[in-house]
């Protein structure tokens, strides 16, 4: 979710998990691991026949039934968080405010991408959730999302359109 642009270090001891890596990179690492483990010992190496076969195409993403990779997990997570903020009360009770604050604190500790979770924990310390109303929470979350977008080189979202995107739908009725 948060800093999606960072790729974890790959070592023989620690292979990054699927939720910490985008599918394209994960797939490439899997193919590399398979090709290195499949090589015969040097005494058994044979000269391959020369054939002009193009490399297999890069996958555009896993089939929908596969476990989520970092990008899909992030996209779905932001969808959930923005939808929660969109339906947060305009006048929340003290318990509503406490629940949302605790949710974000816990969420940042249990998010399955470890470096994303740590980045989000730092962001929460710098900018705690603004829970006074639906508007303040939605705007705070939009700013948090835009911080991540900047880190990973994606365009920022126009926060004035947050309710149109996550609650009301466009005025043209195309989502009705």
From TrEMBL:
Top-rank taxon: Eukaryota
Keyword annotations: Disulfide bond, FAD, Flavoprotein, Oxidoreductase
InterPro entries for the chain: ALR/ERV (IPR039799), ERV/ALR_sulphydryl_oxid_sf (IPR036774), ERV/ALR_sulphydryl_oxidase (IPR017905)
Start and end residues of each ERV/ALR sulfhydryl oxidase domain: 66-166
UniProt-annotated stretches for the region Disordered: 31-70
Enzyme class (EC, first level): oxidoreductase
Pfam families for the chain: Evr1_Alr (PF04777)
Reactions catalysed, as given in the entry: 2 R'C(R)SH + O2 = R'C(R)S-S(R)CR' + H2O2
Cofactor(s) required, per the database record: FAD
Signal sequence bounds: none
Compositionally biased intervals (Pro residues): 53-65
The EC number(s) this enzyme carries: 1.8.3.2
Polar residues: bias regions: 31-45
Name the UniProt record assigns to this protein: Sulfhydryl oxidase
Origin species: Aedes albopictus
Lineage, top ranks: Eukaryota, Metazoa, Ecdysozoa, Arthropoda, Hexapoda
